[in-house]
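Deviations from the work plan: none for this task. Representative record:
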Amino acid sequence: MSASATVTLTIDGRTVTVPRGTTVYQAARAAGIDIPIFCYHDRMPPLGACRMCLVKVEKMPRLQTSCTLEAADGMVVSTTAPEVVAGQRAILEFLLINHPLDCPICDKGGECPLQDQTVRYGPGRSRFVEPKRDFAKPVSLGPVLVLDRERCILCWRCVRFGELVAGDDALKGFERGFRSEINTPFTLPVQSKFIGNTIAICPVGALTARPYRFVARPWDNRPVASTCTLCGVGCAVEFDVRDGQVVRVRAREEPAVNDIWLCDLGFFGHAAVSHPDRLRTPLVRRDGLLVEASWDEALDYVASRLRAAPRGRVAALGGARLTTEDAYVAARFFRAVVGTPHLDHRVDAAPGSASLLVGWGMRRPLGDLDEADVVVLVGCDVTEEYPVLWLRLRRAVDRGAAVVAVTPRRLEVDRFLRAHLVHRFGEGAQVLDALLGSAAGAAGGVDPAALAAATAAVQDARRPVVMVGRLALEAPDGIEILRRVRELAARWGVPVDVLRGKGNAWGAALAGLLPDAAPGGRPLEDAQNALRALWGEEAVVDAGWTAPEIVQQAARGAVEVLFALGADPASEVVDRSLWMQARRRVGVLVAVDAFLSPTARMADVVLPVLMAPEKDGTVCGVDGRVHRVRAAVPGPGSAWAEAAIFAALADRLGRTLVYSGWEEIFDEMRTLLPSLAVGGRVFPPADRSLPAARAETAASDGDGLVLIPGDALFDLGTMTSRSPAVADLAREPWAMLHPEDASRLGVADGDPVVLRGARGEVAVRVRVAADILPGQVFLPRGFDQAPANALADGAGPARVRLVPLHARTAGGGR
Amino acid sequence: MIPLERDAAQAPVLSEQARAEIRRLMGRFPHRQSALLGALFVAQAEAGYLSPPVLAEVAEVLDLPYSEVVSVASFYHLYHLKPVGRHVIQVCTNISCHLRGCARVVDHLRDRLGVEVGQTTADGVFTLRTAECLAACDRAPVLMVDDDLFGPVDAPVAEQILSAYAAGARPAASAVSGPRAPRVEARTPDSEGGPVLLRYVHEPDQGELDAYLARGGYEGLRRALSMAPEAVIEEVERSGLRGRGGAGFPTGRKWKFLPRDPAVTKYVVVNADEGEPGTFKDRTLLEGDPHRLVEGTVIAAYAVGARQAFIYLRREFARARAVLERALAQAEQAGLVGRNILGRGVDVEVVLATGAGAYIAGEETALLESLEGRRALPRLKPPYYPAVKGLYGQPTALNNVETLCHVAWILARGAEWYRRQGPPILISVSGHVARPGVYEVPLGTTIRQVIERAGGMRDGRAFKACFPGGSSSAILPAAYLDTPMDYDALARLDVYGSMLGSAALIVMDDTTCMVEVVARTVEFYRDESCGKCTPCREGTVWLGQVLRRILAGGGRPADLDLLEGIARGMTGTCFCPLGESVPPAIYASLRFFRHEFEHHIAHRTCDVRSPVPAA
C-alpha cells in the first residue's frame, strides 16, 4: 500500500494507521478502542442519526460522530474527554426517557446493546419525571414479526436494511419527530422474505420473532455452528439450542456466501425438526396399513425384497436432503452392494428436460456476483428459489451492474433490474434470440422497450454472469433456451451458472447419486478402477436410468424395489399421474424420510431418518462450496442417519459398509476427489451436449390457460407446513392470474377456484396481478394440498381450465 | 403484492384525469419519485383524503413501493391520511401570531365549531387545525381556510369567514379583513436612490411581464448572458452578497464550488420554503415581484452551467404559486426561460415544485430529499454538500428567494452600485410593534432603529425582548437594542445563538410571558423535528414537557437546572441546525428572564408584571 493510501491519526493517545476512507469509528475499533453505537451498522453506509458515537477531535468546533467522520492524517481524537462523556450520557439519557424499563420480560435482555451501553456509558439515574410516550404494544406485523414501538430507539437499521440490503422496503418510518414510528403501512403484515435480519440487527427489543418470544434467554442457549439446507444456497447458521431443541436460528458470518444475512425460511423453517409429527420408528405396511415396526423387522423385510429382486430392478430416487457423506454411502450401497446403476437425485426433472443435460450448480463462487457488471438471469425466480443469492445480486446492482432477467413471471425485485423480459411460458428461446440479435423484433410477448434496454445492457459487458434456472430448464422449450444461454456465455467466454437443486443437491451429485457419474463427479468408466480399489468390490458402472426414466420404468413395471431417499416423488415428479402408476407397479416402495410425506404415506416401508440439524457431516452450497453441518440436537425416537440404514441393510446382504463417522467417509471421498475440503469448492458434473435443434413444436393451441409451474419460498409441503411461522406465511395454496383473464373469467383477487387439467385438479385462491402475461396461470409447487404436478398431462405445456368456486364454499378463508 | 382491505372487485379510485395529471407531473422531473408530493395532492384533491387504496393507486402509477408512498405521505402536515371536513381551517399559533392573540381565535373557533383542534365538525364541513408560522406575520394573527389566507383575524372576522364558507362561498381575503398588502417601507433617506428589493412590490401590475420589462426587468439577465459565466460569478462575489436564507454564506463562493465541467449535469434549486418563524420577506417578494426571482434563477443557472432549475415553493403559498406560475408562463412565452434564451443559445428550464408542510424542508439537504419525493430528512454533511452532491446526486446551486432577487439587481446595476445601496437587506418585523411588515434597510441598521421604522412599540408599551433572526436565534433583552443587524455584530454578542439568521425581528413587549414564548418555541421545533436524530427528537419533547409543567403550576426548583441540562445535551450533538436552534432560546431566557421561571415555580402563576432586571 502506498503512503497516500493510508492515514495516521491519534486516538486516545494511540497512533493508528488505517486505509484512507476509513471512518474514525472503524479506526478506533481497529485499535481496540470501543465507541458505543446504535444506528451505525457496518453493512450499511453511515447514517449519523443516533449521535451515540460522539468523539472530540482537536481543531473541530463541536463533538463529531465518529461513524460518519473520515479519519484524516494528523487528527487527534479523544473518546474519553469530559465533553465526550457528557455527550454520550446525554444521548443515552435521551434514548432512555421514552424507553420502557421492561428489560426483565424483554427478549433482548442479555444481548441488548442499549442495556450494555447504558451500564457502560449511561447516567446512573434518570432526571425524567414526565409521563413516557405511550404506544399500544406489542403490535403484530404478520406471522413472524412483533413490533414494540415503545422500545424502539429509532436507529433506522431495520428500515435501511429493507431499503439498502433486501430492497423490499418492508419496514418504514411513519409520521415524524417524536411521533416517528417504525412500522409497515397501516400496520399491515410485513411483506418480506428477509425480515428475520431486522430482528437480528435491532439494537433493542423493538423487533422480536414471534416463534422466539419468551422462549429463552441468550445465556440459556448453546450455539451450534452449522449450515442451512432448506434452499440450495448453503448459508452459514448458528442453531441456538435449549433443552435439546433448536429454539432460534441466527446467521453466522460467512463473507463468501450469506455474509451476515439469512432468509426467513432459514430463520423460521427449521421448526419442523422438533415437530411431534417426526417419524420415530420404522413403519411397515401390513394388511394395507402402515404400522409401527422394529428396525429389525423393517430392515429384514427390505433386505429380503432386495435379495429377491434382480439387480437392475432396484432403483433409488432422491438424495438432496442427505449430507454428502450419507449420500455417498447410499451411492456405494446401490452401486456396489445391490449392484444397480439406477440412482438419481434429480427427482423433479421432467423427462427429456434440459435439467438433465446440465450439471447443477454455479461455476463461479457466489462472491463473484458482487463484482459482475452485467448479469443475465434466465428463468430463475431468485427471491423464491435462492433468496440470499438476491442479496448478492443487489450488491452488484448497487455497484452499477445491469441485471437483465428473462422470466415468465415478473420478479418481485423487478425495480432493481435494468431490463426485465417477462415472456410467455414456452417462448423464452425466442426472447433470447431477439436478445442475441439473431431474430428481429420482440417475441414471446415481451415489452419492446424492455427488450431494447436489455439489448443495450448486454452490449458492453466486462465481467458478465450468465445464470439459468429451473423455470427455463423445465420449460417446454428448455433445451432451446439452454442452447441460447450457452451461446451467450460462449460469446463472453464465461460459464453458465446453473441455478438448480435444493438442499444438498450438489452434494448428492458429488456423492454419486446420479445415473451417469461416479462419486466425486467422475465419469463412470474412469472411476471403475478407483472404486474397485477403494471398496474392494466390484461396482456397477453402467449408465443407469435418470430419475424420469426410473419413474417411467417403474410405471412400466420394470422396478421391483424403489427407494425414495429423502425425497418426495409424489409431490416432486412432474407428472403425478405417472408417479401414481409407478407406485402401483413397484413391488416395494421404501420411503426413507423424517415425516410421513405424501410419498411415505403410500410406501410399503418407511424408515425414519435424522434431519440435517441432527447430523454431522458436510453439504455443498449452490456454488459448490463445502460446508459443515453439525448435530445440534438429538433425533427423535429411533431415527437413524441414512448411512446407518445402508450399513444395516448391507450387513443383512452379507456385506460390510461400516464407517466410524462422517470424517472417515469424507476422507474416503477425498481419495476420489483430492481437492475436496471443508470451506473449499468442488465443481459440478460435466454438462452434456444438446440434441440437435428440432423443429419448433408450436405450443398446443388447446383452450384454457397455459400452466406455469413455479416456486414459492413459503409453501406448504411436508416440512414447511410443520414450521408454523412458514406455514402462516404461506397461508394457503394460490395461483396467479393476469387481470385480463381474471375479468374475462369473472374472478377477483382472493376468489377460490379450481384449476382443472387433463388428469387432475387442484383448488387454490386466485391472486390477480399483471406479473405474468395473459393466457397463463402461475401455480407454485410445494403446496401438498394443491400439487402442481397433478395438472401435468405429460405432453408439452399443460393447459388448465379455471373453474370459479362460489365464495360461500371457500371455507371462510377471508 | 399489497394486501388491501378492500373489495377486490372495487373499481380504481383515481380518475383517468387524475392519473394523467400525475403522469404529467412525472414528466417534469428527471426522476419519477420527484412527482410523488405533487401526485399525493392530486389524489387528495380528488379523493378528499389519502385512504389506503388511494395511496396504493398513487404507488402504482408512480411505480414506487407502497410502503414508501405511505411513509412519505405521513411525514408532511398537509396530507390527510384520515377523512377531513370539506374545509380545513389552520390557525397559525407560532410566536408572532401568539404575540398578537391567536389563542383567542383558536378558542373562539373551538367554541363556535364545537370541536377540539384536530377534529372535524359533526356536519363534516370544517376541520380545525393549528399551523406553524404561515409567513404572514405582518397580518398576525392569521389563519388559512384551504388555500386562502386571512389576517389579521379576531373573533368577528373569524365569524365572517365561517359563515361565508358554511354558506358555500369562498370569500376573498379582502372581503373579510380589508386589504392588507405587506407593509413595506422605503430605505433610509441618506442613501442614494429608493428602495431596491421592495421598489416595485406594491405595484399591482408588477407580476405582469410587460410592466416588469417597462421597469427595467430582465436587464440583469440580458447583461449576464453577455458575460462569461465566470464573470457573472465574479460580479456576484464582488457584490458581497451573502445568502439570505439564514446561514449567510457568500453566494458567489458557493457557486464557485460547483464543477465547471460542462459534461457534469448541474442543477439550480431555489429555496422558496420560507418557514423560519417570523420571516415573511420571501413571500412578499414572491407575491409582489415574481419575475425578479425568475430572472435571478435563470442568471444563477447560466452562471453555474445548469440547464434545469427547480423552485421548491412552500405549499401554503397558494397565492405566490399562482403568481409565479403566471410569471413563468409569460417568461417562457417571451423566450426568457426555456430554450435558446434571448437567442443566445442558453437553455434553462424552470420547474415549479411545492412542498407539503414541513419546516425542516427549509434545511437545504432536507429540501433536496423532499424535492426528490422523499421524507424531508437532512442528509449527512460532509460529503454531500449540495454544490458537490446535491439534487439527484449532482452538483447543485441552492439559493434562497431573496438571494436570487438580489442577484437580479446586482447583474442589472453592477456590484459597485449594489454595494453602495447599503447593501440592502430585508427585515421581517413582527410581534408587538405598531406596524409589522417587511422593511428594507442598509445592512447594519440597529435593532432599535428597525423597531422605530416599524412605528415603535405597540400601544406605547415597553420593549422587553426580541428574537433578532427568527426563533432559531437567541432572545435578546433591551440591553442589546443598539446592536446593528448584520451578520458579524449579532454573531459576536456574548449571547449563545445570537445571529442575523433570516433577519426576522420578533419583538415582544412587557406583557409577554417569556416562559410561554419559550414553550411555544420549543413546541414548534418539537413538531417540526424530522425525528432522525436522538437529541432533537427526544430533547424537544422533554423540554416541552418540563416547560408545560412549569406553566401549569407544577414546576420544581430543580427544573431550571434540568432545562439547562437538556439544552446542553442538545448543544452540538444534533444532526442538523433544527435541533441546534432550540438551546439558544433556553439559555437566553434562563439568563435574562430567570425570575419569570422562578415566579412560575414559586407561585404557580405567571407574573409578567415582574420587573425586567437590568442586564
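Confidence is low (pLDDT under 50) at residues 808-814 of chain A.
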